[in-house]
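User: Predict Cysteine synthase A's structure from this.
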Amino acid sequence: MPSLAPLPIARDSTTESANIANDRQGLRVWRYERLARLHALKRRTPATPLHRLTFPGLPGIRVYLKDERAHPSGSLKHRLAASLFEHALCHGWLTPGAPVIEASSGSTAVSEAWFARRLGLPFIAVVPRGTARAKLDAITAEGGRVHAIDDAAALSSTAARLADELGGHFMDQFRFASEASDWRGDDNLAAESLRQFDALDEPAPQAIFLGAGTGGTAATFARHLRLRGLASDIRGVDPQCSVYRSLWAGHSTSLLTDSSLGPNPIEGIGRPCPAQAFLPQAFDDMQTIEDAASLATARWLNECFGLCAGPSTGTALIGALRHAECLHERGEHAVLLALICDDGQRYRDTLYNDAWLERRYPAHRQYADELARITAIGRDSQ
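Assistant:
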């Protein structure tokens, strides 16, 4: 049987292959340099503080708050932003000069803008209209651009469209948060928290109270605790205008829409539609927290302890305190953990504006009374 003659290789094809190889080598070097810069930034970030709160009304219950405000970009989302950039660089998705685009209620965008500036990348945040002005200012102060839209349920689709139109990369925290975070390592939030408890000669927390925006933080905690063989509960706290509690309980969310749920004043947690990164199995329990209770608790924390935090911190803390009350009534002792997610100064026009709070959430007063009753600190205890 006659053999087939090899096809001639066009000179132009050889040149094209060489050019592609050179371009890819240049991109590889560029990505290595950005990863080295990113890792140097992470190494320079110290562990965030752990505050212990004690309450006369809850003897035997020790509540700790891990203060994520201490990050250079000011919130818990600093960790997620670093993981997302690392994830995108290692997958080869980032290129010089191409914009990084994110869908965010604000804090993740602030943190991603912080990293994008230091990595030499343009950044665009797609945010809900009505996002706290201080967050928007923080994004633009880092050189980012803001694209505000009315429908919070369309954040991701809008960001994906912009990335396609501009030749950029949609970071997509709501899809990749639980995948990008390194839950096995010793420098994630869960591992760092456990080291701090060990240094204080405290046991691992009996329960950890977490809201879910992407669900990435809860996934990291749950996986790391299981890896370590620890039995701490992950107890979810969800705003009123969110589908996560229903999703966790196995109820259908298909009939819920952003308009039927209404606005969510608890920025950073809760979603009008499920995030792909959200893992219901990460949570041992999940409860819905009244928005006015979240706001009242954040204000109470600032007034009584001088810890000025955003509304999502209030959501987690009131969940922890209600659980603590149940434990106290049963005569149990426990160590509980919640997070200070971001700085209350970002909400000076809303949460910390008396006129806004009275006009929008007058029920906050009844929850201030509840906090004083549970803890014996505050209005009714004076």
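The chain is about 45% helix and 15% strand.
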